[in-house]
Amino acid sequence: MKHHLRYSYLFASAAVAVIMASTPVDARVDGDTITLGSAISFSGKYSTNGVHASNGYNLAVKMINAAGGVMVGGKSYKLKIKYYDDESTPLRTAQLGERLIKQDKIQFLLGPYSSATTKAMAPITEKYNIPMVEAEGAARSLFTQGYKNLFAVLSTSEQYLAPVIDVAAAIAKKAGKDPSKIKVAMAFENDPFSLDVRAGVVTAAKKYGMNIVIDDKLPRDLSDMSSTLTKVRALKPDVLVVSGHSKGAATAARQIKELKINVPMIAMTHCEAAKVIKKFGASTNGFLCPTQWGETLSYKDKLFGSAAEYDKLFKSTYDGYKNVPYQAAQASAAVMVWKAAFEKANSFNVDKVRAALASTDMKTFYGAIKFSKAGNNIAKPMVLRQIQNGNLKIVAPLKWASDSVQHPRMVGK
Question: Which CATH superfamily is domain 2-156+297-370 in?
């Protein structure tokens, strides 16, 4: 089956041989192969998104190799990825980071999945002065630690659901209503990513003087939020925002359907990764879903072409995807950053490659990528998609919107 392609690079035996010293030197490659390393979640609570991310990594490797590989010093090199399963456990991520660097002698890393595991990996890469391009750790606190080896292609987490508040305010103003009268209900998993998402929502709500009527922090194993939804039914908020990774999105969508919760505007992270449309059908109509990327955006590059062409290629490569998760798209973009850095440095010297990473300024099918001194991408905004009749439509920002927001949401059965 096509989806078996994700395993084609899974346990690559070849590793980049390096000489570990206080000052980084050139990394020796194994013949014509550059091996990138990643500890990522193939099991545990993050496994769904871990597979999405590895699919994105692997597709980019396949395409880069097919297009002639990576040119360094006038020679073409192939890319390969050595994976380990971190079991969705930050401690295990850190242990595997040590293994990749010390035992496997890999000096160029791709990130794990999730902010929690990326937070565990970042001190390891910093300790050994090994650069990491990551695509799945969005917590803003990652970029306040002064890390010099962390480069993230995605927008930071406080931006995920804040645009929902802006949309609600704009709709209210258009209807001649005062945005400060809007009541907001919030339910966030008690983990670094979701709490950063919450911070963005709180800041945006305060900007308009909105009233936060529910502010629930939920356990990390988010399998039940009925108590929050019972309060939602009683207090009748205008906006409900939820963040709890894939399991939290599935739990929220299921219980919103079961309890027949009717809120004019509902937004949650991880709609696509949790496959809420497939699982819960018309009851998800009107959900607003933040995304790092969308196939109808006008982004393009020479490797994949347009966002739409990437979308088509990904679906033809991997079975079972109605929508391509942004986790996969941004993972592909991370591999593209490595290729560009190697070629710009024209060397495998770690210092030169790191400098090339820091000066990244490129356009991709995923969007523009340019790193701040802190390592976060400052060139690409978040976008919002809304589930409309079973399809995800981009509704914000207006500059890239393909459709208008449906409000209040048309509740399905």
Answer: Response regulator (3.40.50.2300)
Distance (Å, whole) CA 337 – CA 215 = 38
Could you tell me the fold of the domain covering 161-268? Rossmann fold (3.40.50)
Residue owning tokens 């991408």: 377
Alpha-carbon gap, residue 68 to 251, rounded angstroms: 44
pLDDT in tens, 25-56: 445 477 899 999 999 999 999 999 999 999 99
Spans of the chain below 70 pLDDT: 1-28, 412-413
In angstroms, rounded to a whole number, what is the distance separating the alpha carbons of residues 322 and 274? 12
Residue 137 CB contacts under 8 Å (≥ 6 apart), including other chains = 111, 112, 114, 115, 117, 118, 119, 122, 152, 193
Domain ranges within the chain, ordered by starting residue: 2-156+297-370, 161-268
- Give, in order, the Cα–Cα distances in Å from 397 to each of 194, 295, 362, 363: 22, 15, 21, 19
- Residue 270 contacts by C-beta under 8 Å, 6 or more apart in sequence? 49, 243, 244, 245, 246, 248, 249
Q: Tell me whether domains 2-156+297-370 and 161-268 share a fold.
A: yes
Give CA separation, 282 vs 242, 248, 254, 301, 388, in Å.
Answer: 19, 19, 12, 35, 9
Residue of 244, 182, 185 lying closest to 219 (CA atoms) = 244
pLDDT over 90, % of the chain: 83
